[in-house]
Amino acid sequence: MATVVKKIKLQIPGGAATPAPPVGTVLGPAGVNIGQFVTQFNEATKEKRGIIIPVELSVYDDRSFTFILKNPPASRLILKALGIEKGSSKAPQQKAGTLTKAQVAQIVAEKMPDMNAGSPEAAARIIEGTARSMGVDVK
Predict the structure, then answer these.
(1) What's the rounded Cα separation, in Å, for the pair 49 and 13?
(2) pTM of the model
(3) Are 106 and 116 in contact (CB under 8 A)?
(4) What superfamily does domain 74-138 belong to in CATH?
(5) Using a CB cutoff of 8 Å and minimum separation of 24, what contacts does 82-86 make?
(6) Which residues contact 137 (CB under 8 A, 6 or more apart)?
(7) Residue 34 CA neighbour count, 13 Å, CB half
(8) What is the topology classification, in CATH, of domain 4-69?
(9) pLDDT in tens, 14-38
(10) Which of 63, 94, 109, 122 is geometrically suited to a Cys-Cys bond with 90, CB 3.0 to 4.6 A?
């Protein structure tokens, strides 16, 4: 059986991976067939087009690979829920928007498998903290 020789973590827009940097420059030295990865990734993420998708790639000694798709970062989910491009650059003073408890619960439900939280309540506190650091109020 092939053994894992390298683990690579990337964040790529769904359905829009290309062999250009940053993908090509990271995968090339690892000996991965870049075209094959790009095709497989884009096929797997075509319904999440434009959303940033973290991917964990395992490269084996025979130059084959497998990858695991994760949920988008919490900050991206918060921006999507509010329908804004980015958070506040002056976080505590200037607010970028307001997130409801229902929206927080929805983000927790989507993000929970990837989170390091023991309960949905703890996960909600993590999401709320991320929102506050982006200048988003939680009501």
Answers:
(1) 7
(2) 0.69
(3) no
(4) Ribosomal protein L11/L12, C-terminal domain (1.10.10.250)
(5) 82/136
(6) 95, 97, 98, 99, 131
(7) 14
(8) Ribosomal protein L11, N-terminal domain (3.30.1550)
(9) 777 787 777 878 887 887 888 888 8
(10) 94
